[in-house]
């Protein structure tokens, strides 16, 4: 009896702590959200609080009125994310398939070439010089996509292990007897069966592209070509950029406007996340097991 | 003897020929890896050159170790101390927090509730540091929540972004908030695999829940913990510069406690000043990182071969 009580006490403790953690996670999001709906002058005089002292949608109205700037940035980020994810899968999956073939000639050498990139790299400056001076990616939209395409050779290794462990060789053999080419096997057998891992990779990569602000900062100096994260970054860190947005009219809600854009910047992630949540958990745990 | 060599050679040739379709499939990725990862290695020499953009890499004159001298005279200690100090502290702290969160999460009985907490705990991991910088700003700006809160107790406003002394704690909280969930899920997935029978046996012997945690759960988690910590140690020379750059809003007054190797290199790159020197910093980091990864990977291999990177 006392044991049962003790057990229940521990479960209760778990619930209490997890609830506190949940609050600690939700509150910052709520605060950002609430602050973006606070009246600008009220915020300046009284400060932000958990519940806006005075509600106002002026910040959002302003963002909408400058939609040609923000909307374009939004569109750029969406396009980059979609194209980047597709391209990443197109490049990663066949290479992983190649490495999953145990009798591939030179497999060890190729694997080593990939693994070495995880251990040693030239650093940002060498990459920057490479992409700007040899490939002339400066101010090209490709600069958003290319440098992040395969964030780590680790992604390829992850897909490779999946091919190896969950698709039996007999399937390929029977397809080959039916006259399928190697490429046919890949398209008709390997890809459909590898959907879970590909979805995971797509989600991880999608988040990386959506959140990326570095490449835009390095490679894109033309304000008109910035994605939403770069706009947010510049509003936060560069007063001169902020002034280009706000010169036209007086009384722009500078502070709350930033927060409104930030809210718009996370909304898609928060909307998509619940749908893909299980792939995300899978991705993390798979990475850990094979890590 | 001769025939043996011939057949062996023929076998290799056949193997190569059979591999050709696969090579074609792997080609795009290999080209990409060469462009993205191998070609920049040529640029490493910038660290040893008096680099000028007009002259290019090859045209710039060699200057020996001059770039490194500057670095070691002034900033190396500060940026190394900050990088390693934070990474080490966070590695330990986040491991402790996430192991316990995983244990608590494992106690949750309802499936719905479990899924809810699991999803929520990972949510911060999805958020960009750029957005996080705004969230922190709402807390810490002059009109922020924290100052409003302090005002209730009659404490004067604190100008957070110019006071270095608070930042080690602020950065620690922000980092844990963002990254603990990820590790928690890893530990949780290990915990779920444990058999129930150990706990049932322990219960029969009258062991309380707390005793079960310390005597069964933690010892069984030990291999995963060791692995995660060891791999983390290999990465201790790399900091997430998004965190240090964005969350501090690149405030110059905080550099003493917030400048890491990565932000140092990043600033030099974006402001365009002294590429040689920051390239030297990056080179130094790459080398130390490589050595650390090799050492700790060797240790992981000793403990459990499967968990090593290679």
Please sum up the structure shown.
The complex is a heterodimer of chains A (291) and B (310). Chain A is mainly alpha-helical and 291 residues long. Chain A has 15 helices and no strands.
The geometry of chain A reads as: globular
The CATH C-level name of the largest domain in chain A is: Mainly Alpha
Radius of gyration of chain B: 26 Å
Secondary-structure-derived class of chain B:
mainly alpha
Total strands of chain B? 2
How many structural domains are formed by the residues of chain A? Answer: 2
Describe this structure in words.
The complex is a heterodimer of chains A (about 290) and B (about 300). Chain A is mainly α and about 290 residues long. Chain A folds into 2 domains: about 1-35; about 70-290, MetI-like (MetI-like fold, Orthogonal Bundle). Chain A has 15 helices and no strands. In chain A, helix 4 (about 65-100) packs across helix 13, helix 11 (about 195-210) runs antiparallel to helix 15 and helix 13 (about 230-235) crosses helix 15 (about 255-290). The two termini of chain A are about 45 Å apart. Chain B is an all-alpha fold. Helices cover about 75% and strands about 0% of the residues of chain B. Chain B has 14 helices and 2 strands, in the order αβαβαααααααααααα. Chain B has a two-stranded antiparallel sheet with strand order 1-2. In chain B, helix 4 (about 75-105) crosses helix 8 (about 165-190) and helix 6 packs parallel to helix 11. The longest helix of chain B has about 35 residues, at about 1-40. Chain B is flat. Chains A and B meet through helix 1, helix 2, helix 4, helix 5 and helix 6 of A and helix 1, helix 4, helix 5, helix 6 and helix 7 of B.
Highlighted features:
heterodimer; A: mainly alpha; MetI-like fold; B: 310 residues; mainly alpha; 74% helix; flat; disordered N terminus; membrane (chain A); cell membrane (chain A); transport (chain A); MetI-like_sf (chain A); transmembrane (chain A)
